[in-house]
Amino acid sequence: MSKFGVMVMGPAGAGKSTFCASLITHLHLNRRSTFYVNLDPAAETFEHTPDLDIRELISLEDVMEEMGLGPNGGLIYCFEFLMENLDFLTEALDSLTEEYLIIFDMPGQIELYTHIPILPSLVRFLSRSGALDIRLCAAYLLEATFVVDRAKFFAGTLSAMSAMILLEIPHINVLSKVDLVKGQVKKKEFKKFLTPDSTLLEEDPAEVARRKAGLEPEDEGGDPQDKDALMRGSSFRRLNTAVAQLIESFSMVSYLKLDSSDEDSVGSIMSYIDDCIQFHEAQEPRELRDEEYDEE
Ligand SMILES: Nc1nc2c(ncn2[C@@H]2O[C@H](COP(=O)(O)OP(=O)(O)O)[C@@H](O)[C@H]2O)c(=O)[nH]1
Ligand SMILES: [Mg+2]
């Protein structure tokens, strides 16, 4: 018997916890069972109380205080501690049936998704057959407002791709908070970001304006501490182009749109997740209860 789960990932503030809450509300409305696991040791408040909370095992605040670590080092310590105490997860998750969707609400520290092997180990542990055997899918959230700054958008997309390659599980990318860009970016323009390629950089309005004005990118040689000058420089632009071309050549990253306050939007992402983990294929046919007959 398999179990099913989704790992909600992405940078801090991308809307992960809000999406988890909307997902839980949506699933409950559709009479589905959820098991909500908070793995963010720095989380503070929740709309739905987690069924399992890493803060019962270890708190980031204690780690930072006792070990003298900053928030990023502290987070890594918490995850290493979790990996040494995997019973904490096994004991809570082992008895769940295939009817449940296990929702993992992840922290936002970006190093977790890019170059540290802790998450791949955790994913292997959760999905190993014969053990917990969770069929997992990753949902990587990036804020839609990033599309306003294309260099930032490609940097975010690179982190999404990095997580995708690192974790080797079915993966969907999501542009969250689309409601925030509705008035700002035209629909047709926004659509281009859903399957990003390097032409987005060439068509950047700031870039087009610069070309029209006959301005060349500034050459380096100025003060390396001057961040603004660095971001206008030609090497910064060459780096962005190379990143965009790399992403394009993998042609693996495309985005779904999400507005967590919109039930249909949440439902649509949920059906992608179900497809990824083949949730419906694994469900036992169940008999309708009397009250459900009445409603049909
Ligand atoms: N406008 C808008 N704001 C959102 C949406 N999702 C999340 N937020 C806000 O973004 C902020 C960060 O959300 P949170 O879920 O805590 O992000 P996390 O750090 O990724 O878990 C909060 O103030 C949320 O209210 C959305 O779909 N639309
Ligand atoms: Mg959160």
Automatic annotation (TrEMBL):
Q: Which UniProt keywords apply?
A: GTP-binding, Hydrolase, Nucleotide-binding
Record flagged with keyword Secreted: no
What is this protein's name?
Answer: GPN-loop GTPase 3
PANTHER family reported in the protein's UniProt record: GPN-LOOP GTPASE 3, XPA-BINDING PROTEIN 1-RELATED
Q: Which family does it belong to?
A: Belongs to the GPN-loop GTPase family.
Q: Pfam families per the record? A: ATP_bind_1
How far does the signal peptide extend, from start to end residue?
A: none
Name the InterPro entries on file: Gpn, Gpn3, P-loop_NTPase
- UniProt-listed Gene3D superfamilies: P-loop containing nucleotide triphosphate hydrolases
Q: Name one GO molecular function term.
A: GTPase activity
Hydrolase: is it a keyword of this entry?
yes
Where is the segment annotated Disordered? 205-231
Annotated function:
Small GTPase required for proper nuclear import of RNA polymerase II and III (RNAPII and RNAPIII). May act at an RNAP assembly step prior to nuclear import.
The entry describes its oligomerization and partners as: Binds to RNA polymerase II (RNAPII).
- What SUPFAM superfamilies does the database record attribute to this sequence? P-loop containing nucleoside triphosphate hydrolases
